[in-house]
Design brief:
The structure is a homodimer. With about 110 residues, chain A is α+β, with helices and mostly antiparallel strands. Chain A is built from six helices and three strands; from the N terminus they run ααβααββαα. The longest helix of chain A is centred in the first third of the chain and has 16 residues. Chain A is globular.
């Protein structure tokens, strides 16, 4: 693929993954479908921001939101095939970060 | 690695990679050391922003800048071992983007 074609796709992929916490949310969802509350309690992130990120992942076709009409209503989030295909990306970032990022390296500022 | 330890490292890694054009600059440098002008002409990015991104990569220990006292002076950028270790990350993003990101998907807005 010529770089002119690659640039926009690569950058779009990076753009999506680069939103703060998106990588970690996908990392969690790779473990299987989860309720909002499960995601919220397992990540150092506000409910509002988590909800925003999940909407973006839905819009990008990376995650789905399923409402189960139980009492109380149950809402679960799950990765699509496109989302699950990010497994090698998330794994390679995790492995690189574990080996090369020192704990005292400045935490994200965004 | 417990998630509490992973979160900051993973997010720091994501934070670094997420800066716009950083992924593509690393992608180029994976091909070998390059002069500023070579990088600038091969990427749709301004000289000012390229210079900023290269300084960030130097500060993060991912790239080095070498000045050759030729006439005119020659300045080359090269990945460090930490930088070259990003090869699987960049490759996995490229492969995912080629397969799953459609050309008409909105280009980055940042």
């Amino acid at each position: 693929m010529k770089s002119e074609e690659l640039c926009p796709r690569f950058e779009s992929g990076m753009e999506l993954l680069s939103k703060r916490w998106t990588g970690l949310i996908i990392f969690r969802l790779l473990e299987g479908s989860q309720r909002f509350s499960e995601l919220e309690s397992s990540l150092p992130i506000s409910g509002r921001l988590l909800s925003e990120r999940l909407k973006e992942l839905e819009a990008a076709g990376i995650a789905t939101r399923t409402v189960y009409p139980d009492t109380p209503v149950r809402i679960e989030y799950e990765l699509t095939e496109k989302g699950r295909a990010l497994h090698p990306v998330i794994t390679s970032i995790r492995e690189w970060a574990e080996k090369w990022v020192t704990p005292d390296e400045p935490a994200p500022t965004k």
